[in-house]
Design goal:
The chain is an alpha+beta fold. It contains four helices and five strands. It has a domain at 44-124. Keywords: Signal.
Length: 126
């Protein structure tokens, strides 16, 4: 291999690596602020751990909004904006729409019920 070819490969690698890193960084930032669909949610209710004390069912998230979007009941965390599906329909809806909504089980405390958010969220869907 000639010195010219080696230099060219180093230059290409040197340019591609920062571009790939930038792309990954941008995708990571986008996934941290998950969108709700363009259609307006059917209202929202704010929940916080300070209101529920020991009954608060989430770990690592102190507050957020519950929305109903086309019968999908979702929780959007105030810290970071990640969206979590509260009902089974939310998971299939997110998959069909290409949203990166996480299952609420990812942040649900063991033995704690999410009904304090799910039941009022279902009411929003009526």
């Amino acid at each position: 291999m000639s010195a010219k070819t080696s230099t060219r490969k180093k230059l290409i690698i040197g340019l591609l690596f920062p571009l790939a890193a930038a792309f990954i960084f941008v995708r990571q930032q986008q996934s941290n602020n998950q969108p709700l669909p363009a259609s307006e949610p059917q209202g929202s209710i704010h929940f916080s751990s300070s209101e529920y004390g020991k009954a608060w069912p989430l770990v690592g998230v102190d507050a957020g909004q519950v929305y109903c979007v086309e019968n999908a009941v979702v929780f959007r965390a105030d810290n970071g904006g990640q969206v979590y599906g509260l009902n089974g329909y939310a998971a299939s809806y997110a998959r069909a729409k290409g949203y990166d909504w996480k299952p609420i089980g990812d942040i649900q405390a063991v033995g704690k019920s999410i009904d304090i958010m799910l039941v009022p969220g279902r009411e929003l869907c009526k």
